[in-house]
Amino acid sequence: MFYYGAYTSAVDTKGFDGLHYLIRSVTSGYDNTVAVGASAVANVALSMADVEKAVDKIKTGPADLMVMTKLMRREINQYLHGVHGITYEDAANARVQTLFNVPVAVSDEISDNEDCTLNYTGTVYGHDNTMGTTFVPTAAAAAGTTIFVMRLAPEAVCGLQSLPITVERLGSLETKDAERVRIKWYPSVMLQSIISASKVTGIATVTQTVAA
Question: Hey, which of 98, 110, 113, 151 would disulfide with 135, CB 3.0 to 4.6 Å?
Answer without folding.
Answer: 113
